[in-house]
Design a protein that fits this description.
The protein is of the alpha/beta class. It has 22 helices and twelve strands. The protein has helices at about 35-40, 40-50, 70-75, 110-120, 150-155, 165-180, 195-210, 210-220, 240-250, 290-315, 320, 325-340, 350-360, 370-375, 380-385, 385-395, 400-415, 430-440, 445-450, 450-455, 465-480, 480-490, and strands at about 15, 30, 60-65, 85, 95-100, 100-105, 125-130, 185-190, 225-230, 255-260, 265, 285. A hairpin with an 8-residue loop joins strand 4 and strand 5. The termini are far apart.
Length: about 500
């Protein structure tokens, strides 16, 4: 049965569905970058409120800025913007739910002016973002906005015909300012440290070059709350679609698959109102820093520790890597001995319990999280997920061998061939640049660590780290992953 509004009443009683009149929902949130994570996370929290008869003015209008977003827009439009959240887990705490919180979807390629008008509309009070770690046009080593990118130069020269998120936000805010309309909150939901601050710096960096007065108005009026977001959401496969249809009869062009776990911690800093998300489990705080450091360094950093070594061993899914006792022990040792000693106290969180939960989540066999997904965009992930821990370790004079192994595994992985002799693609926008550095034979260590956009200046200047990295890379190349892990864990 094709998923659409007319067929909702025919769904199995075991499938949750919208308990509200979608025709009466306003569009107070515009979300840029509608992918699996947004549909499994922020949209679901909003859906929970809508099902309680609340947040009627906070429906979501999705936005796609890239040509490849058309597939998602067409899939959702064919289903009246409904989609299925298909939870997969090894326990009994899973559910299947049809979500209706997204009520429209605009594509910039179809009508840029319509999108600007939507953003400038007084009804739009929050603009949320999942544009990936690399989407903020920010230099990872300096934190500076990169104004020299061709697309940024285009938007500065053509403010009425923007292509980037910052061009669209700036033009919409300029129109709101001119019309005396209060600004919207810009809420990053991307998985990076101080995501609100990163979004603020990027937008102000763009606005400063466009109009000093607009820059000052944004700086004084627009809120950019930091947030910690968490839910493992693998890419939807045809196998997922088939399983969903067999289990429920639902034919969904693009369901979203996720683990049962769900968490969102947000700084309560909104300039134009917000939904009462705290009623459905969102934790609001004055400072999200300890929560995001915990999550980004323990979960995301450990994902990288697992993923690159796992890929080299030939594992293709996260649960396979966690069933590998040697690899699982290494990941837990990295959590316990390298990351945890550097974390501040996290209010309300037992870190030992949290780490137990992470191992359990990584081991979820039902969700089949792809190692290739975890390995993607390493050039953007390393500076955010692993290198902050490494820098603090260098400063503290702590042992470096386990963290050095993560970096060495990434370098070795970039050759594109695992220990079984099978090849794999390198899913990174900078793949060619990375592979060139990782595949040189002479001065490999100096060349790779010399990638300043990734490693900055301090890491390659650390003699202790360079020596640890060199040793681990030589071990991987000459002895292989198993022997390297054995030696590392014995040190």
């Amino acid at each position: 049965m094709k998923l659409n509004s007319e067929n909702l009443s025919q769904l199995s009683q075991s499938v949750l569905r919208p308990a509200y009149d979608r025709g009466q929902i306003g569009q107070g949130i515009v979300h840029i970058g509608v992918g699996g994570f947004h549909r499994a996370h922020q949209a679901v929290y909003t859906e929970m409120l809508l099902n309680r008869g609340k947040a009627g003015e906070w429906g979501i209008c999705g936005v796609g800025l890239r040509p490849e977003d058309r597939g998602m827009q067409e899939a959702l439009a064919s289903q009246d913007y409904l989609y299925t959240l298909y939870e997969l887990g090894d326990g009994s705490d899973t559910q299947i739910q049809v979500v209706g919180a997204i009520v429209d979807f605009l594509l910039a390629d179809d009508d840029a002016e319509a999108l600007i008008r939507k953003l400038a509309d007084p009804a739009t009070r929050i603009v949320s973002l999942t544009i990936t770690e690399g989407g903020y046009c920010t230099d990872d080593s300096t934190g500076q906005f990169n104004a020299d990118l061709p697309q940024i130069r285009h938007d500065l020269a053509n403010p009425q015909r923007p292509r980037t998120v910052f061009g669209f936000l700036s033009e919409a805010l300029a129109r709101r300012r001119a019309a005396g309309i209060e600004p919207f909150t810009v809420m990053s939901c991307d998985n990076l440290p101080h995501n609100g601050r990163v979004a603020r710096n990027a937008l102000l960096g763009f606005a400063r070059l466009r109009d000093a007065g607009l820059h000052d108005w944004i700086a004084g009026k627009v809120s950019f709350p930091n947030a910690m977001v968490d839910r493992i959401t693998p890419m939807t496969s045809d196998a997922h679609r088939v399983r969903l249809r067999e289990e429920t009869g639902i034919e969904d062009a693009w369901p979203v698959v996720a683990e049962p776990f769900l968490q969102w911690v947000v700084e309560d800093d909104f300039c134009n109102g917000r939904p009462a998300w705290e009623e459905v489990g969102v934790q609001f705080t004055e400072d999200v820093t300890p929560y995001e450091a915990m999550k980004i360094r323990l979960l995301n950093g450990s994902h990288l520790a697992m993923a690159y070594l796992g890929a080299l061993l030939g594992h293709r899914h996260a649960h396979e890597a966690m069933q590998d006792g040697q690899l699982r022990d290494y990941v837990r040792a990295y959590m316990d001995r390298d990351v945890t000693p550097l974390l501040a106290e996290v209010p309300g969180i037992d870190l030992a319990e949290y780490k137990d939960t992470l191992i359990e989540r990584f081991s979820n066999t039902a969700i089949c999280d792809q190692i290739s997904r975890l390995c993607s965009d390493g050039s953007s992930k390393f500076p955010k997920f692993v290198l902050p821990t490494l820098l603090e370790q260098i400063e503290a004079g702590a042992p470096l061998q386990r963290t050095a192994l993560i970096v060495a595994a990434w370098c070795h992985y970039l050759r594109g061939i695992d220990e079984r002799g099978e090849t794999y693609p390198i899913p990174d926008p900078r793949a060619a640049w990375l592979r060139e550095a990782a595949c040189v034979e002479e001065r490999l260590v100096e060349t790779f660590l010399g990638l300043e956009e990734v490693f900055g200046h301090e890491i390659p200047a650390s003699e202790a780290f360079v020596a640890a990295f060199r040793l681990q890379l030589e071990r991987l190349r000459s002895l292989g992953v198993r022997a390297t892990l054995e030696l590392t864990m014995a040190e």
